Amino acid sequence: MEKIIFCFLTATLFALALGADERCSNVYRPDDECDTNEPRLGDIFHFNSNTQKCYAGDYCESTDKSKYFSSLQECKTKCDVKETGEEVGSGGGLDDDLDME
Questions:
Q1: Residue 84: its pLDDT value, please?
Q2: Known SUPFAM superfamilies for this protein (predicted)?
Q3: CA angle, residues 18, 23, 28, in degrees to nearest 5
Q4: What pLDDT score was predicted for residue 43?
Q5: Rounded CA gap, 75 and 91, in Å?
Q6: Do 68 and 57 contact (CB within 8 A), yes or no?
Q7: Sign of the C-alpha dihedral, residues 60, 65, 71, 75?
Q8: From CA 42, how far away is CA 6, in angstroms rounded?
Q9: Local confidence band at 89 (pLDDT 50, 70, 90 cut-offs)
Q10: Is the pLDDT of residue 64 over 80?
Q11: Strand (E) or helix (H) holding 42
Q12: 55 phi and psi, to 5 degrees?
C-alpha cells in the first residue's frame, strides 16, 4: 500500500513539474537589467515568487528574453497571479529573493 501511495505522489509531482512554466521560477537579478549606456528595446515581464506578483522591466540586446514573459497578462496567467492591478518597477533582485540559482 505504501508503494502505491508513493508512486501516486511521485506521478503527481512529476505531472505538476511538467505543467509549470519555468519562467515563473526564474529569479530576476539586478544584473539582468540593462546597462545605463544600452538602449532599451522594449518591456519584459517577470514573476517574483516572494510577492506573488508580476513586474515590468526593460530589455536590451544583452537580455535573454526567453527567460521572461512578453506581456503582463501572460505572466499573470502562467504564474497564476490572483491580484489585480499593474505592478511597476523591477520587483526583483537579490534583496527580494535570496535563491542563488
A1: 54
A2: BPTI-like
A3: 145
A4: 93
A5: 13
A6: yes
A7: negative
A8: 47
A9: low
A10: yes
A11: strand 42-48
A12: -130, 150
The answer to whether 86 touches 55, Cβ cutoff 8 Å, is: no
pTM score of the predicted model: 0.61
pLDDT tens for 36-62 read 889 999 999 999 999 999 999 999 998
Place 95 in a pLDDT band, splitting at 50, 70 and 90. Answer: very low
Position 41 scores a pLDDT of 93
The C-alpha cell that represents 39 in the structure block: 538602449
Instruction: Give CA–CA dist 20/18, Å, rounded.
Output: 6
Cell readout for 84 is 489585480
Which grid coordinates are listed for 52? 506573488
CA distance 27 to 15: 23
For the chain, which domains are there?
Answer: 22-101 (4.10.410)
**Helix H or strand E segment including 18:** helix 2-19
